[in-house]
Write the structure tokens for this entry.
Amino acid sequence: MLAATILGSSITFIDSTVVNVALPVLQRELRTDIVGAQWIVEAYSLMLSALMLVGGSVGDRWGRKRIFSAGLALFAVASAGCGLSQTTAQLIAAPAPCTARAAMSWAVLCDSPHPAEATAKRASPAEKM
């Protein structure tokens, strides 16, 4: 469980860092202005914040392990889409599945119980209200 948690959080951090490091090259190769470059960076953050609660809800409903695994598979597909992007618009839209993966993983990872709580009965979302 610890290894999966470290892997999931590392992929998310590396994913956002790679975009920021490669931004000057992306801007030059795609011949985009500062507005396009800003959208490339901010589209990821915007989608991540929008989908974080959805990821937690889906994880509660269908299981954290299943959602985490689906998120990793989605990451591979979305990364290929980003790598194949030929225009700024494609590069802005391509990370949407990758961001959904990050939102699912982060929500699931943040909702993981503390090891001391792992043996305690976990309340269902309806019981938490």
About this structure: The chain is about 80% helix and 0% strand. The first helix runs from residue 2 to 29. The mean pLDDT is 76. The helical segments are 2-29, 34-62, 64-83, 88-93, 95-110, 125-128.
